[in-house]
Each structure stands twice: as C-alpha cells, then as structure tokens.
Amino acid sequence: MLEKIAVPLAGGYAYDIWAGDTASLREKLAPVLENRRVMTVADSNTVCYAPAMGLEDPVVIPAGERSKTFTSAAMLCGEAARRGLDRQSVIVALGGGVVGDLAGFAAAIYMRGIRVVQIPTSLLAMVDSSVGGKTAVDIPEGKNLAGAFHQPQTVLISPEFLQGLPVRERLGALAEVVKYGAALDRDFFDFLEENAENLIKPEVDEALYLQIICRSCSIKAKIVTEDEKESGVRKYLNYGHTYGHAVELLSDFRLSHGESVAIGMAAAARMACLQGMWSKAEEDRQNALLRKLGLPVTIPQEMSAEKIVEVMMHDKKNSAGSITLVLPVKMGEVTCRKFTDTDQVRQVAEELR
Fold first, then answer.
1. What's the pTM?
2. Does residue 242 sit in the same domain as residue 328?
3. Identified catalytic residue from 143, 150, 245, 270
C-alpha cells in the first residue's frame, strides 16, 4: 500500500511523493525511467539498495558530507556525458541528503537541467532534503552556499530502508521532524511527545515511521507549494538551521546535521525567550522532547561564541550584514527576525556552551 502526497507548484509543474513498501515503489519508478537513459548515484553505504529498486550500474561516491563538492558535481556531469545522457535522461539519487543534494545539483546543471528522481534512504532525506527541489554543494565558507532549485520528477520513500540505518543517524534526523511540529504544527508536536518512546526504540516501527514521514512531507509540500523559491513562508523551514549550520561546520561534521539542528533549535528558543517572544515553559517543553529523543541542546565547550557568530555571518539567509533568525512565537508558529547587532546572538551562543 502506498501513500501519495501531491506537490503542485505555482508555475504549473507538479510531482508526487510516494511512500510505502519498496516493491510498490519499484512499480511506480519503472514508467518514469522507461525508454530513457538513466544514471543512478549512490554512496558507499546506499549502493546496496539499488537491486531492491531495480537500478543497475550506479555511480558510487564516498559516504559523507565531504563528497558534497564542486569537484564531485563535475565528476558526475562528466560521467553523465560518458554514459550518453541527454536532455530526456534521468539521474536517480539513491541515498541520504548528501547524495540527494549532490545528484540533484548535477542534474540541475548538466545540459542546463535534466530530470532527477529522489529515492531517499535516510530519515533526514525522507522528511526534509528530498522534497522541495533544493540542491547544493558545500564550499569552505559554508554549507550549501552554491546550489540551485531543481524540482524532482518524483520522490519515492520507503521506511524499509530505515531498518539498516545506524540508530544515531535515525535519531539525529528526528530533529527535523520535531522542527515541523515546533515551527508549524502544534498537533504534530503533541503526537511526537506521545510517541517519543516508540520512536527511539532500536527496532524501527515502520508503520509509525511511515506516519511521521508522511506528516512531515505533507507539511513541507504545503509550504513549498505556497513558496517554492523561499521568498516568504518557506524560510520558516530554516528553524534551528542558522545556529545549527554554524555548529555543524565548526564541528568539522562530527556533529550530524540533525544533532546540529537540535542545538540550533535550542538556541533559537533561548533567543525567543530573551526577546520576550516565547515562554520559558515552552522552551523547556521543546528541549525536553529533543533530549528524550537523544538529541543535544547545548553547544560543545570547544566552540567559542565569537567563532559561531563569525560563521553565522556567512549564512545565505542573511541580508545587508544582518543575521536572520527564525524564532518561535508559540508552539507551532514562528517568525523571522533580523539582528544587526550581534551582541545577543553571541550571548545565546555563550549561554548554551
């Protein structure tokens, strides 16, 4: 049985997210690839899933954030040319966020844009990065600073892939799930609180995870439909990401993206309290759920507040020299606020160390 989530975009382009068992997803994939040249991109951890989806001869990149570079994107474009891909061809991204971002970016720039199918195999990619058309590579100055919007042909999600995922990686991704609740859907936050104990069990409850995947994708699809290019409400999806990206980069990626976002959400909550926008009770409630899911809410001692602010100044959401933060105003609702004076931004980083 498959769940379907439609993503109808303003310009008339639309695609579907399908979630369910791999056998049914493989049937959905076949007509998308029929009579087209296909290049599958996987990493060293996800290439094992190719047979289950009927995908052959994948290009394999090393697993990890360090593969998300211009050099890797150029390599994929070169490989696409060697395999004879044309403007009717398809690149299939089979993997987590790094594979999805990198393969999507290569598809966006190869021949000025060819089709891409996203098949996320990590929880983080399932609930976030595979949906919405954001593709990117990292540069030394920051994460995702070079990229393009390139919407997928379709997104195929199976919680079966989560069975082989390391527990730390799965739990880290729950930060993005909590983000949807804390920033955009109070009822979903309540649901996560009620089911936290089942979410952290070593064995994956596929039915429960299918529920949170579909709910997360539905929330994101609604936002993307309303604001595809992040000129308005889509910015709210960055809750926790401004401090989070800085912490992730300064950890040299020893902290996962999800763990970093959890810290970023704690920082945003603290800032909202300092600004008188949010109550201490709601800050504590959010952080209690993050802790229950095994996620950090403090900044590592070795990271100085000054360095965190310095990295945050390069965040792509900033404008005119100010730092833009997404801050909560009540559970399930956020807003954006610009800070030209970095004193409070630094204060929050210091308090969370």
1. 0.92
2. yes
3. 245
* The pLDDT value given to residue 143: 82
- Indicate if 314 belongs to the active site: no
- Are 124 and 192 contained in the same domain? no
For the question of residue 346 being annotated catalytic, the response is no
Active site residue 234: yes
Q: Percentage of the chain with pLDDT > 70?
A: 99
Q: What is the largest CA-CA distance in the chain?
A: 59
CA gap 235, 8 in Å, rounded: 19
CA distance 278 to 330: 6
One-letter amino acid for residue 164 of the chain: G
Which residue matches tokens 């880290």?
Answer: 172
For the question of residue 230 being annotated catalytic, the response is: yes
Query: Which among 150, 170, 234, 235 is annotated as catalytic?
Result: 234
Q: Out of 76-85, 94-103, 318-327, pick the least confident.
A: 318-327
Cβ within 8 Å of residue 326, ≥6 positions away:
183, 235, 236, 238, 239, 240, 241, 242, 268, 334, 335, 336
Its domain, for residue 277, covers 169-197+226-351
Catalytic residue among 68, 115, 134, 235: 134
User: 187 and 140 in one domain?
Assistant: no
257 given a catalytic annotation: yes
Kindly state the tokens that stand for 123: 């929880």
- Do 142 and 24 share a structural domain? yes
